[in-house]
Design brief:
By secondary structure, the protein is mostly helical. Helix content is 57%, strand content 2%. The N and C termini lie far apart (89 Å).
Length: 261
């Protein structure tokens, strides 16, 4: 009789230990999952969480300050470029076509890879002339294009040649960096012009792009470049169904944006 009672107590003790072990493992697993989620974050956290830090995003390794104004501008730019607003995957197809030509040229000239998004922001969904006469994927004015070695006349316009216009853009970008020493300021100068940006720096006594007051277009220009980088690299996060491809050399592509593939 005593032996049976001891066996029952033993079995009960084992059962309790087993149940406690299972509860502990479940609790530990949930805690670890929660910790991982806090550390890595969901891809959609940046858009949905009003208090999300933006310092994980950057342009040419220059990070965004983590404050309310910058956060708001970045969120608006991401929303502007999301699929819900564009309703097209044309930008992804343009990137697939142009990046294999642009990337090695940027690398050769020592230009940060993030500048490959400039043609997507500059020329957008088309490659026609702007109201000011800028033309091609890098949106060069005729005079500027000639200054950096491109032929622009009645018979030929090399502003539409991706390879040649990218080389010209690299030469221009290097000159801007020599002047401003900051890649975010280089991007801003590319948009508004070197003299205009230099005047803003002098008048405001400020050399941080994210702290400066600029015209509306230039003030969101770097944000748009970062947003473009995000939607190209993580299309499904921003509503696109586009499957990211591995960029490679396209046989028969000469570097002219009018070439039919």
């Amino acid at each position: 009789m005593i032996e049976k009672k001891m066996i029952k107590k033993y079995l009960l003790t084992c059962s309790v230990i087993l149940v406690l072990t299972i509860i502990f493992q479940l609790s530990y697993g949930i805690a670890i999952t929660g910790l991982k989620n806090r550390n890595t974050g969901s891809k959609n956290v940046f858009i949905s969480n009003k208090n999300s830090a933006v310092n994980a995003l950057n342009f040419a390794d220059e990070v965004l300050p983590n404050d309310r104004s910058v956060n708001g501008k970045m969120k608006r730019s991401l929303k502007l470029h999301s699929f819900s607003n564009t309703q097209t995957e044309m930008l992804h197809h343009k990137a697939e076509k142009m990046f294999p030509v642009i990337e090695p040229i940027l690398l050769l000239y020592g230009i940060p890879d993030d500048f490959k998004y400039v043609p997507l922001v500059e020329s957008g969904f088309g490659e026609g002339k702007s109201s000011r006469g800028a033309y091609g994927p890098w949106q060069f004015m005729a005079g500027t294009a000639r200054t950096y070695g491109l032929k622009v006349n009645k018979r030929v316009d090399e502003r539409m040649n991706i390879r040649k216009s990218t080389i010209a853009a690299c030469k221009y970008l290097l000159e801007l960096h020599h002047e401003f020493k900051s890649w975010t300021l280089v991007a801003a100068a590319y948009n508004t012009g070197s003299p205009n940006l230099a005047h803003l720096i002098r008048s405001q006594g400020q050399k941080n792009y994210f702290r400066m007051k600029m015209n509306r277009e230039t003030g969101v220009y770097v944000y748009n470049l970062i947003a473009m980088k995000q939607i190209i690299n993580e299309p499904q996060t921003y509503g696109y169904k586009y499957q990211k491809v591995v960029y490679a050399y396209v046989p028969g592509f000469t570097g002219d944006t009018t070439t039919k593939l």
